[in-house]
Every structure is written in C-alpha cells, then in structure tokens.
Amino acid sequence: MILSMEQVSISGRDNKIVNNVSLSIRKGEWYALVGQSGSGKSLLSQAIGQMLPPNLKVEGKILFKEEDLLSLSPKQMRSIRGEKLSYIFQDYQGSFTPFRTIAQHFDEYLKAHGVRDRKIRKQKSIDALESVGLDEALYSRYPFQLSGGQLQRVSIAMALMLSPDLLIADEVTTALDSVSGHRVLELLAKLQKETGCAILFITHDWRHVRRYASRLAVMKEGEIVESGGKHRILDHPQHEYTKQLIAAAPTLERGLPSGLEEVKGI
User: Fold this and answer.
1) Which of 123, 171, 223, 240 sits at 20 to 30 Å (Cα–Cα) from 156?
2) DSSP for 204-265?
3) Where is the signal peptide (predicted)?
4) Predicted TM-score (pTM) above 0.85
C-alpha cells in the first residue's frame, strides 16, 4: 500500500469532525473519496500532508510508504510534500500569486525542492507545461492571462513535475465548466498512466467516479459508511446513504460529451 489511514480522527475544540476513518490506497490506483459538502473529505486529505489549521487535532496513524506522517516534524513534512506527496486543490487560482509569472512560480517550487541549476529549472518547467498540452509561451505570462482550464493544467503540471508517488486531487473540476472539467480529468488519467502515481480523488460527482476510479469510499458526517470496488458499490450499494447519493446523481453516463474523446488544448 502507498497510503494507509488507521483510525484517523480530527477534532475541534468542542466536537469530533472526522471519526475513526480507516482506508488504504494501492500503488498506482485511482481511489475516490465521495460525499456531500461538509462530510469531512477535504479535512481528511489535508491531514495527510499536515495542512490542517492548528486549532484542529489529529489522532490515529497515516502511513505513507510505511512511515507515519503524523510523527514527522514540519521540516520533515516539507521535504515529502510536493516531491513524494502532491496536491491539486479546488481553489487552484488561490495557489498562484497574481504579480508573479508562471515562470517564477515554477522556479521557486523547484528551488524549494533542491534543484540548484537555473537552466535545469527552466527546462524542467517548460517540459512540465508541454506535458499537459500547454505552449512554452505561457511560461512568461501571469496567472490572470490564462484561462481557468489553462491555469488548472499549470497546477497539474507543477504537482506532477517531481513525479510524486501520491497525488491528492480535491474537487479539481468544481470551478471549471463541464467541457474543461472533462478535459482536465482525461489529462490527469493520461499522466497517471505515464507516471504510475496513485491518486486520491475527492469528489461528489458520481460520473467521474464511474469513469476513473477503481475503488472508493463514501463519507457521511465524518465517517466512512461504505467502501470497496467501484462496480460493486455503484451496481449494488449496501448503505442507505450510498443508495440515496447514487439515486440523486445525474445519469451515470460512461462517455464524455461529444467531441471530447481526445484530450485537446483548452
């Protein structure tokens, strides 16, 4: 297993927000964590990278390649986060500073992870942009000069640039229109096959679960109520909450919208 969470709980001052969650993600798989807003999905994902606010307490074990992440110091965690464990957030625009170019964002990211040579940093950055179908010309532009789909692709390029073992994708299509969202996910699936990374995919969209995930867990009010293989849960859900979510979901079509069979530029 690339990641194992054992009896993980997250508590605020007066209440327990996530309660005794256990799950495991295999190397190279696409694992979906599904649930409505407020179910605790994002908090659970942030706990993996020690990214929760200081007023929240985490208990249990989070084993990443057999190492308990909760036992690491902030400095040790920074050496893992970004290089071996990477994030793509729902608010991808908030990850970029408006007055810094895309080049500056990439350069700072690589310097923080020990790439000393400036020419190597530039070439790695351009290669990363090209890997997600973006032109080298975007390298010198500012974030506001890119479309939402292009900027999301930049965030994917940066997240995968150092070949992490686990990518955590938190509602990555929520801020995009359906066409751009499908293209981004097709791109992510393509890059996953090329790099072999595992993906923890946090979503409320069952259509994306059906198309991309291999296994999944369903969260309700901070607890996992059902988990297992995708087809078993989609075709034969056991928990009443899972049945309600699936029944309320839009039609679970397997195909993409017309014209999106191939990943194209946005």
Assistant:
1) 223
2) S-HHHHHHH-SEEEEEETTEEEEEEEHHHHHHS--SHHHHHHHHHSPP--SSPSTT-SS---
3) none
4) yes
Residues 181 and 249 placed together within one structural domain of the fold: yes
Contact 96, 151 (CB under 8 A): yes
The reply to whether 77 and 199 lie within a common domain is yes
Quick: pLDDT tens for 198-256: 999 999 889 999 999 999 999 999 999 999 999 999 999 999 999 999 998 876 544 44
Report pLDDT digits (tens) over 80-124.
988 899 998 877 777 799 999 999 999 999 998 889 999 999 999
Q: Cite the beta strand spans of 75-157 per DSSP E.
A: 85-88
- 64 and 179: one domain? yes
Is 266 a member of any domain?
no
Domain boundary among 106, 141, 163: 163
